[in-house]
Write a structure and sequence with these properties.
It contains 4 helices and no strands. The protein has 112 residues and is an all-alpha fold. α1 (2-20) packs antiparallel against α2 (24-46) and α2 (24-46) packs antiparallel against α3. The longest helix is centred in the C-terminal third of the chain and has 32 residues, at 68-99.
Length: 112
């Protein structure tokens, strides 16, 4: 139960960074922290104590098997999260090239 609570704390740290920080790079890092918290939560849902790999042969019966669906979902979300982070960093670099700052408050004042 404490692992789920730690996932919630990690998600709240990322959400705090997303809401309260004004630097674009810190916001991107907050998004990454939130993504990893959700991935960890999904993995914990599929976890079984003393579980075995989900590989079954014909003469073997596996009783306590971990959930392979959670592992496949997390592998997919890692790839999607990497693409999202790459696009966000590329946009942040273009903003820095145009305005010369990563601060959102200064960018909002420089309309035009």
């Amino acid at each position: 139960m404490s692992a789920y609570f730690l996932c919630l704390i990690l998600f709240c740290v990322g959400l705090y960074s997303l809401v309260r920080k004004r630097n674009i790079i810190k916001i991107i890092i907050g998004l990454g922290i939130m993504e990893y918290a959700v991935n960890l939560f999904i993995i914990l849902i599929g976890y079984r104590a003393h579980g075995r790999a989900p590989i079954q042969s014909q003469d073997q019966q596996i009783l306590n098997m971990v959930d392979p669906l959670a592992q496949a979902m997390v592998a997919t979300t890692i790839v999607i999260g990497l693409a999202l982070t790459a696009v966000a960093v590329a946009i942040a670099i273009r903003i820095y090239e145009k305005y010369g700052t990563f601060e959102i408050t200064k960018i909002r004042r420089l309309k035009g």
